[in-house]
Amino acid sequence: MKIQRVSALYFSATGNTGKAAQTLVRALAASLGCPWEIRDFTLPQSWERPIELSAGDLAVVALPTYAGKLPNKILPYVQTGICGNGAFALALVTFGNRSFDNSLAELCAALEGNGFHLLGAAAMACRHAFTDKLAGDRPNQQDLEALKDYAGKVTEKLLAGEITSLSIPGDSAAPYYVPKGLDGQPAKFLKAKPQTRRELCAGCGLCARLCPMGAIDPQDPFIVPGTCIKCQRCIRSCPQGAKYFDDPAFLSHVAMLEENFQEPKENLFLL
Ligand SMILES: Cc1cc2nc3c(=O)[nH]c(=O)nc-3n(C[C@H](O)[C@H](O)[C@H](O)COP(=O)(O)O)c2cc1C
Fold first, then answer.
1. H/E element holding 161?
2. Of 60, 50, 39, which Cα lies nearest the Cα of 118?
3. 65, 70, 74: which is closest to 40 by C-alpha?
4. In this model, does residue 1 exceed pLDDT 80?
5. Percent of the chain surpassing pLDDT 70
6. How far, in Å, is the centroid of ligand 1 from the Cα of 158?
7. Is the CB of residue 22 below 6 angstroms from any atom belonging to ligand 1?
8. What are the tens digits of pLDDT across the range 150-171?
9. Contact between residue 11 and residue 71 where contact means Cβ atoms under 8 Å apart
């Protein structure tokens, strides 16, 4: 089966989903001998236009796991704005060493529902956006090598014309994971927003420009009038380290994760 182009399409607030998708796409392009492209749809401006693919395309569509599923504000774009029109897709989710629960199933269902033939599916453990204590060094060299091996196997499968149906773990219709606090009770931090250390903030506005929800006031980055999805992009991208979360329920959830989910998790590669 001749592939004309491979594309990495991803949402990646803190960079690791993008890193994994780019590694996979570059390796696929090398083994298939075709051009590659990157389509980063992390910023809201990119949701204004659909991405149209067609037969002969192979897309790696990659998103992080949020609360055991895909980020709910981004899902509608994946379901309706990324159009396969007969292209092949590899579904890739990343997760922060707790569990990907149902996110891979949700991504596969979204892709199959919008014109893709699903060729493979993978889940990769990456640094948890909330804390470096969970998979802080991942994706590491071994993870990136595993992605390259996977690319080789995908290429072999394509060349052999063996497209089989996949058994994807999870349930795309399952509810979201309910985050727990240290006391084992649901940690309610839906309304939490990032705070700003006045003495550190240089007022550069980078946080406002990079926020996937456009939630931060570009004129005054101390104010967050929009919806915060807790993606941590502002926290991790602020050059001054001026942003932080102080919501007690959020901090309790992070402490619970640190207490229970440091044991390294395995990646999953399905073909
Ligand atoms: C709001 C939010 C919810 C998350 N929920 C989960 C989860 O349910 N399970 C898990 O293992 N990791 C979870 N994570 C961690 C991310 O899946 C992980 O850090 C991911 O690799 C981030 O991708 P990025 O670097 O492309 O932003 C969550 C992260 C955020 C920001």
1. none
2. 60
3. 74
4. no
5. 100
6. 31
7. no
8. 999 999 999 998 788 899 999 9
9. yes
pLDDT tens digits along 42-83: 999 999 999 999 999 999 999 999 999 999 999 999 999 999
- Tell me if 115 sits within 8 A of 85, measured CB to CB: yes
Token pair recorded at residue 187: 């940690």
- C-alpha 156 to ligand 1 mean position (Å): 31
CA–centroid distance, 111 to ligand 1, in Å, is 20
Q: Tell me, using a 6 A CB cutoff, whether residue 19 lines ligand 1.
A: no
Please state, in angstroms and rounded to a whole number, the distance separating the CA atoms of residues 82 and 61. Answer: 9
Structural domains of the chain in order of their starting residue, each with its CATH number: 5-175+263-270 (3.40.50.360), 195-246 (3.30.70.20)
Amino acid at 57: D
Q: Cβ–Cβ contacts within 10 Å for residue 125, how many?
A: 24
Strands 82-83 and 57-64: unpaired
| Ligand 1 site-directed mutation target among 63, 65, 134, 188, most atoms within 8 Å of CB | 65
**Location of structure tokens 């380290």:** 241
Ligand 1, atom nearest to 177 Cα: 8
